[in-house]
Amino acid sequence: MWQKFFALVLLALPLPAFSQGFSVTVLGARGGLEDGNLSAYLVRPLNEDTGVLCDAGTVLNGLEVSEQKNAFQFLDKSNKKTENHVEYVLHNVIRAYLISHSHLDHVGGLVDISPDDNHKPIFALKSVNDVMSRDLFNGEVWPNMGNRGKNPRIGVYEYHDLKPNIATDIPNTSFHVTAYPLSHGGVESSAFLLESKGSAILYLGDTGADAVEKSHKLLQLWQAVAPYLRARKLKGIIIECSYDNSRPIHLLFGHLKSELLLQELTALRNEAGVSLKGLPVIVSHIKPSLTSAEASETRIMRELSSGNIQHVRFIVPIQGEVIKLY
Predict the structure, then answer these.
(1) CATH code, domain carrying 37
(2) 16 located within any domain
(3) Cα–Cα–Cα angle for 202, 224, 250, nearest 5°?
(4) Cα separations (Å) of 97 from 25, 55, 100?
(5) Which residues form the signal peptide (predicted)?
(6) How many CB atoms lie within 10 A of CB 14?
(7) Looking at the domain assignment, is residue 84 inside a domain?
(8) What is the pLDDT of residues 275-292, one digit of tens each?
(9) What is the C-alpha to C-alpha distance for residues 130 and 185, in angstroms, rounded to an integer?
(10) Does the bond joining 181 to the residue before it have cis omega, within 30 degrees of 0?
């Protein structure tokens, strides 16, 4: 009888922090060619209505497609009913931008939306913020919407330089973020480890494989992430796979193809020392092909599935859809 009593008491207790999960709304899924559907992932903790946008290749079009697919129903459930979900999400749900690198397919949507955006922080490595303030929001390519660089400074966006391997709180959210440098064909890119209430999600910007880039950046990232895997705190990974295996190494330009992504997941498994079975891996930045009759994601997913010795759960992100990670 006492055993049943204690069992009921345990069931009535709040779930521990490590049960926290994440909602990922795909504002933009593709890499490179497909304007209007470029890398942008709205990440928020489950049961919270504020989050961050990881990269901003597409913003407004992604919000509108997401609204058409009822991705923002959580606002109605949280008593934040509004006739214009798109405007509300832009101004109230997205509390910060995390920019992995300054290539246009990762920042173009931010530029486009900036005249109608509200004051927000941009978190990035210093090298990324330097390029954005010098070469993008510079009063010539586009008005200076930031708080650095040439006058007049409009100041809609406030640059925050992330120091590698050091966690930083994101204001007005439950997140803190740690940035890790990545090698992207001679350009410094970055990964973001987002943590909230004992759980974590890992977002990677564009990256090449260590063997191709002649670097140890991904190995260092896997070493940093390994404890989260061992503690079962890592709820998912968003990582690029731009090309299928037919792409020659010398034409990768700092990106991954299927076999290289599989090799890097094995490297993560080796560093963590635990199985990756069932780990959600969202395959981002797939570049569409203008010459093949078969869709790029079909070929890439076939290759990933056939070589999936780590038994992760590969997910193809689709613009406007919500992926929940538990």
Answers:
(1) 3.60.15.10
(2) no
(3) 70
(4) 14, 7, 10
(5) 1-19
(6) 6
(7) yes
(8) 999 999 999 999 999 988
(9) 18
(10) no
